[in-house]
Amino acid sequence: MTSHDATAGILQRPYLLATAGACALVFLAAFESMAVTTIMPLVSRDLDGAGLYALAFAGPLATSVIGMVAAGNWADRRGPAAPLYASVALFAAGLLIAGIAVSMPMLVAGRLVQGLGIGGMTVALYVVIARVYPARLHAQVFAAFSASWVIPSMIGPFAAGVVAELSSWHWVFLGVAGLVVPALAMILPAMRGMRSGAEPESSRVPWAFGRMGWAALAALSVLGLNLSGQVPGAGWVMAAVALVIAMLAVRPLVPRGTLGAHRGLPSVILMRGLASAAFFGTEVYVPYLLTGRYSFSPAFAGLALTGSAIAWAAASAVQGRMGSRLGNALAVGVGSALVLASVVIVLVTTVFAWPAAVAIAGWLFAGAGMGLMYPRLSVMTLALSKPEDQGFNSSAMSISDSLGGALSLAVTGLVFSALTTTAGSFAGVFVLTSAIALVGLIIAPRVAVRRPAASESAAEARGAAEGDLKNVHS
User: Where are the alpha helices (DSSP H) in 167-207?
Assistant: First the structure.
């Protein structure tokens, strides 16, 4: 880098283009995620793909785990450039496949490719930050990533609904694909400017074929779980086997004791997965409920997600300002209670056919709960990690996040398809996600570890500074 490094900010030379390009990639990934949630009910009806509705969401989350593990190992061996280029190419290819899809299986295939790209792109961007920016600017870059996620969360659902209504849902995918290459191009000068000395020696970092194999097995089991509903007679047996395989495959990818909810870091990692499972397992069906039972247009159904995103951002800001006055464990407990209450409100609205406004207002609490929990779970993961374990534990947190959501969506898809009435299908989904949220509330106190007060205060102070790391890796 240049001599300006000592005083330059992230929006000044030599970092301006790298910041703009990296934030643009995060923005596009976030917009695509929120937009697809809004338009998928319309896509499902257009392509007669109700049976694959859940897989369209669970599939990318599952394949993103493979992308995360592969890109992380590749970056450790050769630096972040090659995995970033490959991940962006996969993301764009997936968008193009989904954008020209003429059947639901074709659209799902595109979504699976997108997941590989997004998972790898997230990890590669983390390494780019470490290599391109000095440590004093890392917090500023993460804050910029946070803003790059929050903005499309607010405008994406409504904008996607408008595009789908005025033109075609195809352009929601194709429009994003057209912007990916310019975003990557802005990062290229910074990539070329990375010091060669910063690259690790490949002989010291072996290919982690074992972890990649477990990640692939976990992803395949999630896909099998989704498709088990298409197998007459033996579908539920296939689903049970796939679920067991997924649990076995994830064990080597997370800290020991995670599945047993051991106190401290294992419960922190598990809570990340449970929160993702309860929240996203419900959220993808909220627009479906509003369009299917209440005849909302896609644009106005998307406003429910916008409100939740605003509540998420607001709660995240509040917990950051409170700092050590709000303990990490308390924030997780309150957040999990809010998510449970919100899912129950959506469930009760469905069962008793209450006005849609009740479910929309109730869903705001879920966003607020996630805004309290996610930053503190991210900070606790780093605070409870030894320096040599930070990479593994950070990866485990992202994997738990993705697989938690993917498994929840797979099972809710089976429940939705198995029940015979529309009201019963939605109610069944929300009963399941309420149960997941209740388990999260029970486990939440176990994230706390008993240690000297001074150490806990230091960790909580770091929580205020971290901000909402969900926006960087989601």
Answer: 170-192
Angle (deg, nearest 10), helices 356-383 and 298-322: 40
- Compute the half-sphere exposure of residue 97: CA atoms within 13 Å on the CB side of its CA: 18
Alpha helix stretches (DSSP H) within 386-421 = 390-418
- Are 67 and 115 in contact by the 8 Å Cβ rule? The answer is yes
pLDDT of residue 221: 92
How does residue 133 score in pLDDT terms, banded at 50, 70 and 90?
Answer: confident
Structure tokens at 68: 């995360």
How far out from the chain centre does Cα 315 lie?
18
Per-residue b/e over 190-216, b at no fewer than 16 CB within 10 Å? bbeebeeeebeeeeeeeebeebbebbb
Amino acid at 96: L
Model pLDDT for residues 159-191, shown as the tens digit of each residue: 888 888 888 899 999 999 989 989 998 888 877
Helices 104-132 and 16-46 pack at an angle, to 10 degrees, of 170
Token pair of 25 as six digits? 């990639």
Q: Which residues contact 206 (CB under 8 A, 6 or more apart)?
A: none
